[in-house]
Amino acid sequence: MGIVSREDWSLHRKGQQAQARHEAKVKEAIRDNLRNVIANDGLILSDGKQVIRIPVHSLDEPHFHFNRGKQKHVGQGKAKTGQVIGRSGDGNSAEGPGDAPGEHVVESEITIDEIEEILFASLELPNLRPKPKTAMQVEGEDWTDVRRRGIQSNLDRKRTFMEAMKRSQRQGALLRITEDDLRFRTYEEVVRPQTGAVIFAMMDVSASMGEFEKYVARTFFFWMERFLSKHYPHVEIRYLVHHTEAAEVTKSDFYRLRESGGTKCSSVYELALQLMEREYPTDAWNVYPMHVSDGDNNGSDNEEVVRIVEKLCESVSLLGYLEVQPNRRASTLSKQLEEVDSPYFRSYRVASRAGILEALLHFFKQGTEGKEAGGR
After folding, report:
1. Do 323 and 361 share a domain, yes or no?
2. CA-CA distance, 286 to 129, in Å (whole number)?
């Protein structure tokens, strides 16, 4: 008499399944909290190693639990069709202290890289065109082959395990990995063309820009820069600030500068136009001016702003105007910019921190719609 046995391989996968479920829960929590996560104060001006905490709902397996309410349920006692026999509680009722357990919510630590993976998945530079005169050659690596010899860091564990399984089945032997089963990934160095592009980061630093307005502006540019450095590492960024006069500053000063005085937005658009004509001819560059302001511009300057914006839109790949208005009212500048009829002009209005995410999605998506949009 023979005995047939089968090992349950699902037991060996329990740890991997639990880890996969945990990672899926964390990603879901990031997506659900993304508006608040990207507006986290601690991430701005961080070194990229910042870790923050987000709530993740319980990862418990389904199980039976004690009926603390001792209520009758389906199939118990006398009841009429449609009669409500009870409602489940969450253990957090405001009536009395309560004795039921609450929902398990843990705080999971996430890094800025995990946030970027979710946030940047749907972002891209719109209207990015090939510019052959400035096409740069960027070196990269393509994993193209699998071999029996290689360095340990390039070991392909999945293929190695599969080879060991096939050999063991052929030989009718116990599963173990031998040197002949090892498989290593190999790569080839390749050269890819990179299209030239430049971003003009333009920020209003006048006295009318309060703490909230400056915070939204810096947060928007912080994530814009992280996105560009990750997906378009060779894109140049020029930092421009303005009150009644505009000037180019360093990256460090751009995020820390505090100014005062009045507002003349045309000054920064004029500076961007001069830089473009002098250093970034549009037959060789994709140009993206991005301006953030509260819109509290000198009334006599609005027409000049519209004139320069329309001139820029004739050549740029996209011009973006983000207005920060906590009172949710459009400024006179924003109303004046409605006259700009160009598919290469986009504007957006933010009223709270939660609107920063929508602003990023509005500006950095493919398409050429130029209508103004209002956010949270």
Report:
1. yes
2. 7
